[in-house]
Structures are given as C-alpha cells and as structure tokens.
Amino acid sequence: MRRWWPLGLAVLLALLPYGQAFNAPGTLNLLALCLVFAGLAAGYDLLFGRTGLLSFGHALYFAIGAYLTVILMNHGFALPVAALLAMVAGTAVAALLGAVALRVDGIAFSMVTLAFAQVGAIIVARDPGGLTGGEEGATIAQGMPDALVGVVNTVNLYWLALAYLVVVLVVLHRVGRSPAGRVLSAIRDDARRVGVLGLSPYRYKLMSFVLAGALAALGGTVYVLVVGGAAPHLSSSDLTLTLLVMVVLGGPGSRFGPALGGALFTFLDYQLTDYATDLPGPLAQPMFVLGVVFILAVYFFPGGLARIGVTLPGWLRRPARQEA
C-alpha cells in the first residue's frame, strides 16, 4: 500500500482545481509556480544531494529553456518544436560546460560553474540582437495554444506544471533505483573508492550534470508558459542559491524532500511579498522572514522537512528526559 501513495497524491493534486477553495485563477497560477520550482529543486538535488556536486550555475539551464522557448515561439516556431529545441539546447550546453567544469573537484568546480553562470547572465543582460529583451526581459508575443491562453485556461497551466513535476520525480526515481544511481550515491560518499573499483566518477558525474541540466531546461519552458515570459533574474546565480536553500530546507538526497522544499519556499516567497509590506521593521522584507524560517528549520530539523517524522519526536522527548 505504501508504494502507491505517491500516485494517490498525484491524483489528489490533479483534482485540486475542482475544489472550490483552489478554483481561482490567481491561486492556480501560484500553485503552478510552486509545482515548477518543486520540479526544478528536485532536479537540482540530483546534483547536490545525490551526487555531491555543489553547482552555482544550475539556473543557467533553466534560463536557456525559458529564453529559447520565448525566442523560438516569437519567430514562428510551434510550441512543441520550440520546447524540444530549447530542451536539446539546454542539454547540449550542460554537456559542454559540464565536460569542462567536472575536470576539477570541490570548491574549484563550484567556482567554474559560477563563472559560466555569470557569462550567461551577462549575455542575457546585453540583449544580443534584441532577442532577450535586456533588463526588460522577453514575453511570448505569438504561438501560445488557445488551451493555454486566458484566465479560464489557467487550470491547464496548473496541470502542465504538475505534469512537469511528475516527469522529474519519475525520472529521478528511475535513476535512483538503477545501478547508475547507486554509483552516484557512492561518488557522493567517496569518489576515490569508486575509481578504485574501476568505474569512472567523471562519466557518472557528467551524466548527472547533463540530466539535471535537461530537466532544468524543460522546467524553463513550463515556467515561461505559466508566467508568459522570461526575465533576467532567471539566469542569475541568486536563483541557484535559492534552489540550494529549497533543497536544504526540504532535505537533500531524500525522495520528495527537495520538491517539498521548493514548493513551500515558493509559496512563502509569493505570499510574504503580498503581506509583508504591512509588517514593521525588517519583517517588511520577505527575504528576511524567509531567512529566519530557513534558519529555524535547519536548526530544529537538520535533515530537512523530509526527516521531520524522525527529528520531531526527538525534540518532543527532550523535555521529558531533562525532567527525569
């Protein structure tokens, strides 16, 4: 029975728009964004939590998927073709940059990925050929299918975002249960031991890097369909740092923790932006509140929200031990 509860949860999420409390365009749009970033955080965890690679440039592939989808659709490409080409481009760039970055380990690898991300952010800001829109960003001017246009069709965007999250989780589940997934876990624990066994850590790391990049590019396509365009912050290293916070909040290396962290962080971010302006002092800054929530969550639940069932009973038993 326990193996089927994820399927039941997916069905429940699919039926959510039929509930009166959620069947409002604004609510569905926010939930769609939560699902997109849940999938993006889960994909990033393939690198950070499952392979032990701390990349500061993961947002670059998300931005490639987003911007290329907008650019191709505005140049007359149909959505399926634009989405496919954007994902292929994101995968190819991830393979190219990963092949270079993975030649080094540790903090040097993180700095190389950060450098690539900065190059991508500069290219987006320079607006080459008027394609990216510079600081203004780029919006989808044509080519949106009728089923995804208009307030009444917001529910279709929600289901599209849910489908993306399901695809990411299924792919990660299959990878995690495969021999390659077990090698990635071994690399995270001790890459040199994997090398001693005759396996190539570099090849497996590159596979993880490319797959995570492809999932991020696909997420970029879904994101621009939900919001209608791409903005420069998608290519910034700040977004990658936000993904890192999402993964740590949810529980790196866990089955559903990163997705939970991504959805919860996105929900709080948007909700606090609406309500925090009425609060006094630093509480008026949403990032300040999110930072405090993150610190408290890491302190009380060091394994992330995914391990709350393990850590919470320990905290509840602590006062009883002290009294004894």
- Compute the number of helices: 12
Strand order of the largest sheet: 1-2
* Largest sheet descriptor: 2 strands, antiparallel
Give average pLDDT, whole number: 88
Cα separation of the termini: 39 Å
Number of strands: 2
**Overall 3D shape:** globular
Written as H for each helix and E for each strand, in order along the chain, the element string is HHHHHEHHHEHHHH
Description of the molecule:
The chain has twelve helices and two strands, in the order αααααβαααβαααα. It is mainly alpha-helical. It has a two-stranded antiparallel ribbon with strand order 1-2. The longest helix has 27 residues, at 201-227. It is globular and about 55 Å long. 40% of the residues are buried. The model has no long low-confidence stretch (mean pLDDT 88).
Q: In terms of topology, how is this protein built?
A:
Layout: H1 5-15, H2 25-48, H3 59-74, H4 79-101, H5 106-126, E1 138-139, H6 154-177, H7 179-196, H8 201-227, E2 229-230, H9 237-250, H10 257-275, H11 286-300, H12 308-323
Antiparallel strand pairs: 1-2
Helix pairs in contact: 2-6, 2-8, 2-9, 2-10, 3-4, 3-8, 4-8, 6-7, 6-8, 7-8, 9-10, 10-11
Structure summarized in a few sentences:
By secondary structure, this protein is an all-alpha fold. It is built from twelve helices and two strands. Helix 2 packs antiparallel against helix 8 (201-227).
